[in-house]
Amino acid sequence: MKIVIPGGSGQVGTVLARHFHEEGHEVVVVSRDAKSARTKAAPWRVVGWDGQTLGAWAEELEGSDVLINLTGRIVNCRYNHKNRCEIWASRNRSVRILGKALETLTSPPRLWLQAGTATIYAHRFDAPNDEYTGIIGGTELNSPDKWRFSIDVARSWEGEFALITSPKTRKIVLRSAMTMSYDRDGIFDYLLWLVRMGIGGTAGSGKQYISWIHYLDFINAIKFLIENDQITGAVNIASPNPLSNRDFMAALRKSWGQRIALPVYEWMLEIGAVFLQTESELVLKSRRVIPGRLLDAGFKFQYGDWKAASADLCERWRKQR
């Protein structure tokens, strides 16, 4: 297969590119920082684009098999006006221009996997969110008004994708939870750093749910969607077993062998978020998401349980270092 991955120079894109390249597929990463991506000596091809205008990059889509669009400015930042505009524009404009690119093709990709986020669901504790009965966020009464921005972005992102007419291309939105891999600077690397420093205790109340997925299950879920032509629309990409922040961090500490665990209170998170130039929502929002459609279609998780997943990731992290 030929697989084209706009926005593929980040953590998740690298996980996918590495795997498909090792399997012998032709992988092309489309990046706004193509020069930097090439200097990392990636064995796959990297071409440049600006994420909003047509160019030579669009030729890579002709005759390709799968388009995986992961483009989007990182959300681990303060939600000031400048960053909000960039977060919004990077997602919507890339979807829009890819749709226009497909209109110019004689043989467009047969599948478009579009990045989304599990953050689109409501902050809740009473029940999990699947694709059938899950509650889309933005109107819940028990969450701060400032959390509305991430919901609005997620809804707009999916809305832009829904406007694309592509009769020859199957379309899927990936409502992805946090992908846990052993790679440097990823979310697992950061969480493990907290544990290693002795500050990987409960965050806030600890009741908020964490939805996650082991990177091998993420890869296999993508391959499953490629192979199953009947699946379209929104698909939750997450482990079937989300768990509370308290239990999540306890399992990670046990896997690492760390006994010290200082808690981080909500007021500490608010202050720390300012100094770290991020938002406390990333830690305090309850994301209780389950992969209803994947399970119904027969997908089998290799690491559906966080205890086993965290033990495996800690071992891989140690070997890499």
Structural descriptors:
321 residues; globular; alpha/beta; 7-stranded parallel sheet; two-stranded parallel sheet; 11 strands; 14% strand
Report on the structure:
The strands form 3 sheets. The chain has a 7-stranded parallel β-sheet with strand order 3-2-1-4-5-6-10. With 321 residues, it is an alpha/beta fold. It has helices spanning 11-22, 34-39, 81-103, 148-162, 187-196, 215-227, 245-256, 266-275, 281-284, 292-296, 306-320; strands at 2-6, 26-31, 45-48, 66-69, 111-115, 170-176, 178-180, 209-210, 212-214, 233-237, 243-244. The longest helix has 23 residues, at 81-103. The chain is built from 11 helices and 11 strands. It is globular.
Topology:
Elements: E1 2-6, H1 11-22, E2 26-31, H2 34-39, E3 45-48, E4 66-69, H3 81-103, E5 111-115, H4 148-162, E6 170-176, E7 178-180, H5 187-196, E8 209-210, E9 212-214, H6 215-227, E10 233-237, E11 243-244, H7 245-256, H8 266-275, H9 281-284, H10 292-296, H11 306-320
Parallel strand pairs: 1-2, 1-4, 2-3, 4-5, 5-6, 6-10, 7-9
Antiparallel strand pairs: 8-11
Helix pairs in contact: 3-4, 5-7, 7-11
Residue windows where pLDDT falls under 50 for at least 5 positions: none
Content-based structural category: alpha/beta
Strand order of the largest sheet: 3-2-1-4-5-6-10
| Rg over C-alpha atoms, rounded to the nearest angstrom | 19 Å
Q: Write down the secondary-structure element order.
A: EHEHEEHEHEEHEEHEEHHHHH
Largest sheet entry? 7 strands, parallel
Helices, by number, come to 11
Q: Distance between the terminal alpha carbons, to the nearest Å?
A: 32 Å
Number of strands: 11
Q: Whole-number average pLDDT? A: 91
Shape: globular
How much of the polypeptide forms β-strand, as a percent range? 5-15%
Relative helix content: 25-40%
